[in-house]
């Protein structure tokens, strides 16, 4: 389901520190030690300027147990998203 929501492929795979990435219309797939992970939407927007600080993704987008927070985890932190607060970087 998540791969279909990424839309069409925009770039060939390219190197990033520690792995590879590939851009799609609605997100990006990063491949590193934890395998391929999808980063998209507002979380993806917050991730781009914080790539070197956070490292590669270690999860696809997840939802908190209460359903109120969407988030991705990264090697050195995570990005949380809520409808009210938007995307926020939480570094370790």
Can you describe this structure?
With 92 residues, the protein is an alpha+beta fold. The chain contains three helices and eight strands. The protein has helices at 2-5, 41-47, 51-54, and strands at residues 14-16, 19-24, 27-32, 35-40, 62-63, 70-74, 77-82, 86-91. The strands form two sheets. The protein has a four-stranded antiparallel beta sheet with strand order 1-2-3-4. A four-stranded antiparallel beta sheet has the order 5-6-7-8, covered by helices on one side. The model has no long low-confidence stretch (mean pLDDT 93).
Summarize the structure.
With 92 residues, the protein is an alpha+beta fold. The protein has three helices and eight strands.
């Amino acid at each position: 389901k998540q791969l279909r929501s990424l839309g069409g492929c925009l770039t060939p795979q390219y190197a990033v520190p520690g792995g590879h990435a590939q851009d799609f219309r609605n997100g990006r797939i990063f491949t590193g030690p934890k395998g391929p992970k999808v980063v998209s939407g507002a979380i993806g927007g917050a991730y781009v300027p914080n790539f070197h600080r956070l490292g590669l993704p270690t999860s696809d987008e997840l939802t908190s147990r209460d359903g109120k927070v969407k988030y991705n985890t990264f090697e050195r932190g995570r990005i949380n998203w809520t409808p009210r607060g938007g995307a926020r970087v939480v570094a370790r």
